[in-house]
Amino acid sequence: RLAHPCQCRPGxxxxxxxxxxxxxxxxxxxxxxxxxxxxxxxxxxxPGIFAARxxxxxxxxxxxxxxxxxxxxxxxHGGCMTRLAGDLNDLLExxxxxxxxxxxxxxxxxxxxxxxxAFGGAAAASCAFLDEIPYVLESVETVGQPLTRIESGPLxxxxxxxxxxxxxxxxxxxxxxxxxxxxxxxxxxxxxxxxAKGATASAISALLNSNATDFHDLIPRxxxxxxxxxxxxxxxxxxxxxxxxxxKPKARLVQLADQGHFLPVEAADAVxxxxxxFLHSGVAAFPSSRKLND
Length: 294
Hints:
Elements lengths: L3 E3 L8 E5 L5 E8 L3 E5 L12 H4 L3 E5 L16 H14 L5 E6 L1 H13 L4 E7 L22 H10 L5 H10 L7 H13 L3 H12 L13 E6 L6 H10 L3 E7 L5 H4 L1 H14 L8 E4 L1
Parallel strand pairs: 4-5, 4-6, 6-7, 7-8, 8-9, 9-10
Antiparallel strand pairs: 1-2, 2-3, 3-5
């Protein structure tokens, strides 16, 4: 399943692709020099969410288009965390990558957690997780408890919101638009264009599966140096991130004041600086968990 330049559609020339283990053709972007960093985007998004050029001077930025999204939107099956984790493993095998740094944002973190749970952490030199929690349905009152109280309303609400194919694009764009805080008009336009492309049944299935999957027991078992970054204006409560940083060995938490969920865009400079600092020096470079006024 070696990667090759895709020539299947006009305008897609020279974009590399690989065959996943279920034969789906999936696209990815590659820019820069060694060592490799794999950046995993979230729901109804695309690799363009990441400012890869900020990293490509020192690293090779690999940015997969998740199935059902972006240039892989034509893949209509496999919308679940286990399949997306398998795709991530297939990409590493196709590119013969045996040691990488992982960066995930939003649902992309869940893809990474599923990968680490299923395939182990031998290939992960470090991990950075941007504004995602290990169990979206968890109640803040029971954070970190083995048998947590769940809040199922958001999940059924999402299902009902996206159920009608005739209004799915509008519904997904409205969902994404509601998360934006300080995006410029141009950034908002690009984000909503990606949302329209990612308003696929497989992408929505992946989002619902991600929300219903509990990665609590994985967090303390991760051994890689880890960076958690959260936006204090995000819909995810700070307590969840404090818990992850408290139980994860070799981890640091950075909280960005006045920032919401779309950190890779709305706090691009701060996130790029944090990632470069972390990748260059690891967790040892961070004196403690901290809050930044970006």
